[in-house]
């Protein structure tokens, strides 16, 4: 059994810089990770809906969102937490996905990532 | 406001008789302190220790990285193995550095002297009196750190021989430290290699607490294979709770050479009772005890079965720990 937690990055992203964030919202995600640990349930953190980066600025913002999540949970073992990078094949830009995967794995090299497009 | 003894006497003299009882404590609480069964911080916030044991005495080069991981796994305390000479002595400057690492990771530093392990049974073990001398020899690193540091006088200070001496020896060691000006919260380990098989600590804890002029002693049991059943664990913990005395499980594991340990019950019972616990140990156990390593090769990327259980399972450290208020 696995818990899939859909999260909308617009709730915590602080414009104009996606690297800024609303700590109160992210703390709620922390608490979800803790609650799953307490119950022995692995958690799949999934962006839902996945934003569609239309230009370089929004592409960078998308990568930055995941980089921030990867950093925040870098100490949490792979048995506890995995990431679903994109949702329902809305993201079709392979280059952005590759950049995101690289950014996440640079922080947490063994983090399980669901196959882009299959996380639905 | 900190009420000094002199000010308290002045206030008492200024009040007319019958104006109401002015409670003048024989001492002022300093830093982390005990109140009944609770461990409190200097601001009065309740503090429940959650973390692991770090074998600094044997692997000093791994401490900084390990504590970073432990903080990342939401520990609020680390019990640090030190030696006063049974192994390479940890100097005052080394201990000061350990405290600095604890503070930079926002961890409470529970410092323990491992030299006493198995005294009376293990060859080369030091007495509690010798352990007290070690703490006094490094007090320059300890004084002023009462908000961040707890002193665990001696690890498992008796094997299974002459355990009845534990009470008098423990009181004497506490007294020695107080007379030397060490006002910290003190942790005292049980005899019987920490497991208190005969209930010597359990039955004498109240008198040890009373004998400390600061009433600032926390009792520590090590739960290994003597604690295979849930009822044994509950019974032991509830005795301290019913007697309103502070307790931690300073070490425990999933099993040992003599049998299984009910780690699920230890985690659950301690959490429900509001008592602290610290698993043994982060890494570095000898090959015959490697099942007690929480990560392989000091690498936080490699949690073991035991590590995953104690940190990330039900009632584990990750889900039950809160950062100390002092940070």
Automatic annotation (TrEMBL), chain A:
<dbReference type="InterPro" id="IPR017853">
    <property type="entry name" value="GH"/>
</dbReference>
<protein>
    <recommendedName>
        <fullName>Glycoside hydrolase family 5 domain-containing protein</fullName>
    </recommendedName>
</protein>
<comment type="similarity">
    <text>Belongs to the glycosyl hydrolase 5 (cellulase A) family.</text>
</comment>
<keyword id="KW-0378">Hydrolase</keyword>
<dbReference type="GO" id="GO:0000272">
    <property type="term" value="P:polysaccharide catabolic process"/>
</dbReference>
<dbReference type="Pfam" id="PF00150">
    <property type="entry name" value="Cellulase"/>
</dbReference>
<dbReference type="GO" id="GO:0004553">
    <property type="term" value="F:hydrolase activity, hydrolyzing O-glycosyl compounds"/>
</dbReference>
<feature type="domain" description="Glycoside hydrolase family 5">
    <location>
        <begin position="2"/>
        <end position="104"/>
    </location>
</feature>
<keyword id="KW-0326">Glycosidase</keyword>
<dbReference type="InterPro" id="IPR001547">
    <property type="entry name" value="Glyco_hydro_5"/>
</dbReference>
From TrEMBL, chain B:
<keyword id="KW-0378">Hydrolase</keyword>
<feature type="signal peptide">
    <location>
        <begin position="1"/>
        <end position="28"/>
    </location>
</feature>
<feature type="domain" description="Glycoside hydrolase family 5">
    <location>
        <begin position="41"/>
        <end position="286"/>
    </location>
</feature>
<dbReference type="GO" id="GO:0009251">
    <property type="term" value="P:glucan catabolic process"/>
</dbReference>
<dbReference type="Pfam" id="PF00150">
    <property type="entry name" value="Cellulase"/>
</dbReference>
<dbReference type="InterPro" id="IPR018087">
    <property type="entry name" value="Glyco_hydro_5_CS"/>
</dbReference>
<dbReference type="InterPro" id="IPR017853">
    <property type="entry name" value="GH"/>
</dbReference>
<comment type="similarity">
    <text>Belongs to the glycosyl hydrolase 5 (cellulase A) family.</text>
</comment>
<protein>
    <recommendedName>
        <fullName>cellulase</fullName>
        <ecNumber>3.2.1.4</ecNumber>
    </recommendedName>
</protein>
<keyword id="KW-0326">Glycosidase</keyword>
<dbReference type="GO" id="GO:0008810">
    <property type="term" value="F:cellulase activity"/>
</dbReference>
<dbReference type="InterPro" id="IPR001547">
    <property type="entry name" value="Glyco_hydro_5"/>
</dbReference>
<keyword id="KW-0732">Signal</keyword>
């Amino acid at each position: 059994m696995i818990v899939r937690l859909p999260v909308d990055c617009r709730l915590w992203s602080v414009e104009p810089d996606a690297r800024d964030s609303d700590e109160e919202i992210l703390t709620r995600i922390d608490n979800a990770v803790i609650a799953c640990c307490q119950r022995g349930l692995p958690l799949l953190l999934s962006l839902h809906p996945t934003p569609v980066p239309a230009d370089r600025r929004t592409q960078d913002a998308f990568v930055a969102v995941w980089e921030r999540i990867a950093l925040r949970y870098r100490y949490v073992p792979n048995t506890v937490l995995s990431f679903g990078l994109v949702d329902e094949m809305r993201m079709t830009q392979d280059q952005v996905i590759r950049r995101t995967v690289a950014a996440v794995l640079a922080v947490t090299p063994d983090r399980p990532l669901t196959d882009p497009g299959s996380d639905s | 406001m900190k009420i000094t003894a002199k000010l308290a006497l002045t206030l008492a003299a200024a009040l007319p008789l019958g104006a109401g009882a002015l409670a003048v404590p024989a001492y002022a609480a300093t830093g982390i302190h005990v109140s009944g069964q609770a461990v409190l911080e200097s601001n009065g916030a309740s503090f429940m220790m959650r973390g692991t044991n770090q074998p600094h005495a044997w692997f000093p080069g791994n401490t900084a990285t390990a504590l970073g991981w432990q903080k990342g796994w939401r520990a609020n305390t680390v019990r640090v193995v030190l030696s006063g000479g049974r192994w390479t002595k940890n100097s005052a400057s080394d201990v000061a550095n350990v405290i600095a690492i604890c503070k930079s990771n926002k961890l409470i530093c529970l410092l323990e002297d491992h030299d006493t392990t198995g005294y009376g049974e293990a060859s080369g073990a030091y007495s509690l009196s010798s352990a007290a001398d070690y703490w006094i020899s490094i007090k320059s690193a300890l004084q002023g750190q009462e908000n961040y540091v707890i002193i665990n006088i001696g690890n498992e200070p008796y094997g299974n021989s002459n355990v009845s001496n534990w009470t008098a020896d423990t009181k004497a060691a506490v007294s020695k430290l107080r007379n030397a000006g060490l006002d910290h919260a003190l942790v005292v380990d049980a005899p019987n290699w920490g497991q208190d098989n005969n209930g010597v600590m359990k039955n004498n804890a109240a008198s040890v607490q009373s004998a400390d002029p600061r009433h600032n002693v926390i009792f520590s049991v090590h739960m290994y294979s003597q604690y295979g059943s849930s009822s044994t664990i509950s019974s032991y913990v509830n005795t301290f709770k019913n007697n309103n005395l502070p307790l931690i499980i300073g070490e425990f594991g999933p099993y040992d050479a003599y049998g299984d340990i009910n780690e699920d019950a230890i985690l659950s019972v301690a959490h429900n009772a509001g008592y602290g616990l610290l698993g043994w140990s982060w890494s570095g156990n000898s090959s015959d005890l490697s099942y007690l390593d929480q990560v392989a090769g000091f690498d936080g990327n490699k949690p073991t079965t035991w590590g995953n259980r104690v940190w990330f399972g039900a009632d584990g450290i990750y889900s039950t720990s809160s950062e100390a208020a002092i940070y």
